[in-house]
Amino acid sequence: MDLDVLNMFVIAGGTLAIPILAFVASFLLWPSALIRIYYWYWRRALGMQVRYVNYEDYQFCYSYRGRPGYRPSILMLHGFSAHKDMWLSIVKFLPKNLHLVCVDMPGHEGTTRSALDDYSIMGQAKRIHQFVECIKLNKRPFHLVGTSMGGNVAGVYAAQYPEDICSLTLICPAGLPSTNDSKFIKQLRELQESECIDRIPLIPSTPEEMADMLKLCSYVRFKVPQQVRSKKGILGWEWEKKNSKIMPKPIFLPASHRRKNAILHHKRPK
């Protein structure tokens, strides 16, 4: 075979092999990097832009699409251990002429984490109000949406700052009393009484704890991915490093999980 042809095949093979090997290595060793790329691409496809804003020395991270107009803006609050990008699956169904804002809750993702901050529901509602004032979202009443812990915060926010809100949507909000507590809520109450804050089921630190959390939080059974089981995976060194700062005693209760999401929609009386 001609040497030039052989070199061409070697170059072509190397060109194809390098990105494939890089993807496989990332998939096995650095899955969090692929997840970030995935969300970055999804945000771009949906027209969501990420911005940061500061209130004194406190930083908020949020994504948005559109500009305030004659229709109310929509502010979305995610649940415990989630982040602003969890709303992307909802955003894709919303009209593009709406002004949407998805914020990272206090202590989550790009928003400031500090063991000295107040992570109670009231404390978080106060922080969200600071964020709203920073971006001047309350120039006109806006629509507030919250799920799980974010639903609890949204409800308290609406009660504390009713002039900011034109309507409120709560999806499986935490904090609502229930006649029959689930296994998950019973476990949380036991932990609260024993003050064993290092055993909160929503903060897994081992693959086994991750599997137990999925059993509590999901009705669909699936295996824990190999990347999670790996010591260098999602629950490995990065997990420990990123979550070590936020271990004060939690004062919030996650949402009770039901087979069908209960959606409560309330409009403020005129």
From TrEMBL:
One GO CC annotation: late endosome membrane
Segments forming domain AB hydrolase-1: 72-181
Listed GO biological process terms: acylglycerol catabolic process
Entries under InterPro entries matching the protein: AB_hydrolase_1, AB_hydrolase_fold, AB_hydrolase_sf
Keyword Hydrolase: no
Membrane topology: Single-pass type II membrane protein
Localization per Swiss-Prot or TrEMBL: Late endosome membrane; Lysosome membrane; Mitochondrion membrane
Summary of the function given for this chain in its UniProt record: Lipase that preferentially hydrolysis medium-chain saturated monoacylglycerols including 2-arachidonoylglycerol. Through 2-arachidonoylglycerol degradation may regulate endocannabinoid signaling pathways. Also has a lysophosphatidyl lipase activity with a preference for lysophosphatidylglycerol among other lysophospholipids. Also able to degrade bis(monoacylglycero)phosphate (BMP) and constitutes the major enzyme for BMP catabolism.
Name of this protein: acylglycerol lipase
